[in-house]
Amino acid sequence: MKKTGTFYILLILKDLQFLAENSFTELPFNKIPFTLTREQIIQYAEKVKDDSNGIFITAKVECDTDRFTEYRDSDSAENLTEFGRFSQAITETINSSLSDKIKLEDVFGKDFRNEDCAEVKTIIDEEMYFFKRRMEIFLETHSREIIPPDFLKTDAEEYQEPKNFTDEEVRQQIEKTLAEEAISAERIKDETKKVNTVEEAVDYLIEKDLSLGNLNHVKNISCAARLDFLKGDSDFHFGLGMYLRNIFFYGNDNQEFYKDLENYKSHIFFNHGEFGEGIIYDLLWRKLNHCITTRENKEKINEIREQLKTETNADSLWISDIKIMMLSYNFSNEEIEKYLDLERKSDHDKGNFYEFYYQQKAVLARLNDDEKETFEMLKQDYFNVRKIMDKLTNTR
Fold first, then answer.
1. Are strands 103-108 and 56-64 parallel, antiparallel or unpaired?
2. What is the pTM of this model?
3. Are 95 and 23 spatial neighbours (Cβ–Cβ below 8 Å)?
4. Which of 124, 141, 220, 297 is the right S-S partner for 327, CB 3.0 to 4.6 Å?
5. pLDDT in tens, 129-162
6. What angle, rounded to 10 degrees, do the helices at 241-248 and 167-192 form?
7. Which residues 6+ apart lie within 8 Å of 1 measured at CB?
């Protein structure tokens, strides 16, 4: 693990604007006040806010220690004291050795209704969205992807204006593309009309149809995305789901296929989709991730269903549905109990709903110890920025 050095800085609006323009990966040469501890920068922020009507933001700066030392020694930058302002030499040294984004932590000011507040809130809102997506993508991918600092930024230098075409050239290109797609669609439909079972449909997708890239994309989706009760698997309906509807359902009157589809409906806990495409998707995901429900868990599910025949309490029914769903995806009893404990805590502490919600997603993601540590860091990054927005708006 890389060694990091940490500094804490105090920002005003123009500093914040500079950081936003640079995806929070570069400090301005602006003699920004810094300390080596969080407590010191908070004390300094409390002091300066009383002498000004401005808004002040504290932030954490983490540097790769080896790169920081290497750059400092080669450039003869002065050593840092415990408190002061960054010189240009030190700023260059830090910018060359940042290990991640500069992360906002808290906000200070006497009046959050001044003219700077709207601009500050716009920047904070964008950062809040970034850290939310960073945490969610980490949980929702088996690869535990951590998006880079400039993930949401369009790189203007790489953008190229499209070539100018005449109306006739555009028309010809459209007709050519539509003709090619029609031929491909007709060929695929001729093959999928012969598919008689869900198993055959999935085998067709794996062996003949989907590219390796598409298969890996589906395989990389974690249960934290598949079983998210707030937003569901957001890529499904207008992504692969639409494709499955096109090739297996539209214009297909194969009754043998539809009969087999019916056999799955009472056993699938994922969204069935408009016509049943969710059933095909679920089995595809399970095969790619070796997550076919075990015989032992099928027996447990049947036992719970027998008990549900006489159950009338809504809360008990909801808890049983969660158990059945998680058993279906081969979660352990310990994982199920942990998820349900968070469910109960969320019910009794609505003010911390999102804390429990993301902890539940972490259970579904099946993180190892190192990944749990990373998740806690990503979650803290998000909630720090969310806390700033809370203070600025007083509405959350």
1. antiparallel
2. 0.85
3. no
4. 297
5. 999 999 999 999 999 999 999 998 754 444 444 5
6. 70
7. none
